[in-house]
Amino acid sequence: MSDGRPELAAAQREHWQDTYRVHPKMYGSGPSEPALYAADVFAAEGVGRILELAAGHGRDTLFFAHRGFTVVATDFSDVAAAQIGRVAQAQGVAARVEATVHDMRNPLPLGPGSIDAVFAHMALCMALSTKEIHAIVDEVGRVLKAGGKFIYTVRHTGDAHYGIGHCHGDDIFECGGFAVHFFDHELVERLAAGWILDDVHDFEEGDLPRRLWRVTATKPN
Ligand SMILES: C[S@@+](CC[C@H](N)C(=O)[O-])C[C@H]1O[C@@H](n2cnc3c(N)ncnc32)[C@H](O)[C@@H]1O
């Protein structure tokens, strides 16, 4: 899937590894607002098995597991994935959590239609080219069952960090060591080709604050 920023991807992976070693609870232990929303949407749809992309140290993974869903949680940081496994064990939900080291730039290790719903909070807006983002969404469409929901969030061009720091091209800016691909509306629209675009919701997270869109899409039957 890669189209030419392997050095940036490798540096970002190291940066995230170091970050999780130093700040193992970087995002806190409670669920994010998008996860609270997604859990209600997924429950209403009768979802059993969720794929979570770029799950980090698992604040949302563990919440989903406690809500009774089974979660395949992926991240390219093995430090983060190992932490999810340990905490899931300690909290008694290990049977419902599969923490897997996976780089989103590679095909998903899952069969076609094998997942009921997909959640990706601040995943597609990582240091990924537009081409890689399209390929990831194609992969999500492959593993998601027909009629399944895909809920993702991305930082967008209204964010205070947009245009700040080192520019890697393709709307990717690196600030404080973290590279982010800031989305514009056109990218959201183009990614929705072949999907039913249910909702795009503007929200904020954290102290900066980060400015994000929460996108809800359905794979057509
Ligand atoms: C902003 S954090 C969000 C973590 C988590 N979703 C949350 O909200 O708590 C982004 C995550 O993406 C992961 N990541 C970045 N690039 C990735 C890639 N190419 N493949 C898999 N994970 C990646 C990082 O390791 C990090 O955990």
From TrEMBL:
Protein's UniProt name: Methyltransferase domain-containing protein
Recorded superkingdom: Bacteria
Methyltransferase domain segment(s): 50-148
Pfam families the UniProt entry points to: Methyltransf_25 (PF13649)
Database matches in InterPro entries: Methyltransf_25 (IPR041698), SAM-dependent_MTases_sf (IPR029063)
Lineage: Bacteria, Bacillati, Actinomycetota, Actinomycetes, Mycobacteriales
